[in-house]
């Protein structure tokens, strides 16, 4: 099952773009002044700021690959894509979990404006799952490219 340069790969990338952008927007357009006081929130914004352009770039490359009837993949290029997806998926998972943890603590402390933080953590978690899926499917292609 080849995933790079197919409609399913573009769908995974667009889902990553949608969820990472939503996470970033929910976090950044919050009315709290205490946003920058929490390292976990700043970390999530930084990671989602990396995931979004990475996913947009790869979505455009894969859409172009579909239009021109599949560009030949090189093993080193796919290795970089798999490595980038792998690292960013763990970073976004860490950001989502840390943001969720801080949000739970804030809710326990009586903070009332934590809905956007919860939504941001949820969107980051969904983006992380899609990134893990991209990593897994592209990782399965590596042995076939190195064997040629």
UniProtKB/TrEMBL annotation:
It is found in: Cell membrane. Keywords: Cell membrane, Membrane, Transmembrane, Transmembrane helix. InterPro entries: CASP_dom, CASPL-5. Coiled coil: none annotated. Residues 5-132 form the Casparian strip membrane protein domain. The chain crosses the membrane at residues 12-29, 41-67, 87-107, 119-139. It is a multi-pass membrane protein. One of its GO terms (cellular component) is plasma membrane. The keyword Transmembrane applies. It holds the Pfam family CASP_dom. It comes from the Eukaryota. Belongs to the Casparian strip membrane proteins (CASP) family. PANTHER family: CASP-LIKE PROTEIN 5B3, CASP-LIKE PROTEIN 5C1. Homodimer and heterodimers. This is CASP-like protein. The lineage of its organism: Eukaryota, Viridiplantae, Streptophyta, Embryophyta, Tracheophyta.
């Amino acid at each position: 099952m080849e995933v790079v340069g197919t409609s399913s790969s573009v769908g995974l990338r667009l889902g990553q773009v949608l969820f990472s952008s939503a996470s970033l927007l929910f976090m950044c357009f919050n009315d709290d002044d205490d946003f920058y006081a929490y390292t976990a929130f700043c970390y999530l914004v930084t990671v989602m700021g990396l995931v979004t352009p990475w996913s947009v770039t790869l979505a455009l490359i894969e859409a172009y690959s579909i239009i021109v009837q599949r560009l030949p993949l090189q093993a080193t290029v796919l290795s970089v894509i798999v490595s980038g997806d792998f690292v960013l998926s763990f970073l976004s998972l860490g950001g989502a979990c840390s943001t969720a943890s801080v949000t739970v603590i804030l809710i326990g402390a009586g903070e009332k404006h934590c809905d956007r933080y919860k939504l941001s953590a949820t969107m980051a978690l969904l983006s992380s799952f899609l990134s893990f899926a991209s990593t897994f499917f592209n990782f399965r292609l590596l042995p076939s490219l190195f064997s040629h």
